[in-house]
UniProtKB/TrEMBL annotation:
PANTHER family, per the entry: RIBONUCLEASE H (PTHR48475)
The name this protein goes by in its record: RNase H type-1 domain-containing protein
Residues annotated as domain RNase H type-1: 19-122
MF term (GO), any: nucleic acid binding
């Protein structure tokens, strides 16, 4: 994940340690014929908004949504977040995490397990 963090944010990471308070994470994953894109907006308690747009190999929209949340959580943890509020726009991801929707594919089960493990860091 550090390769995705620009130099300025890496410097912030090295000097800030942990930042108390609630961090807010907004994520979106999308896919089209050219590939997939993960959009991450992270708002720490300091108010300085961090925006990331990451292009990755072509995935389904659902897999891209999971990848966006996981990448956003990893970024938040790397930058010192201790408490996070995730504003995921994917109804599927939210309901699978909250066990309201069944996970039917093994591949999606692995994404859910990875996401839950990431959430337990906070």
């Amino acid at each position: 994940m550090p390769a995705l963090i620009p130099k300025v944010e890496r410097e912030l990471l090295l000097t800030s340690g942990t930042i108390p308070g609630i961090w807010i994470l907004f994520t979106n994953g999308a896919s089209n014929a050219k590939g997939s894109r993960l959009s991450i907006v992270l708002k720490p308690p300091t108010g300085n908004v961090i925006r990331k747009s990451i292009r990755i190999v072509k995935l389904t929209n659902n897999k891209a949504e999971y990848e966006a949340v996981i990448a956003g959580l990893e970024l938040a943890k790397t930058l010192g977040a201790e408490v996070i509020e995730d504003k995921c726009e994917s109804l599927l991801v939210v309901n699978q995490v909250n066990e309201m929707f069944e996970v039917k594919e093994e591949r999606m089960r692995r994404y859910l397990d990875k996401l839950k493990a990431s959430l337990h860091q906070f």
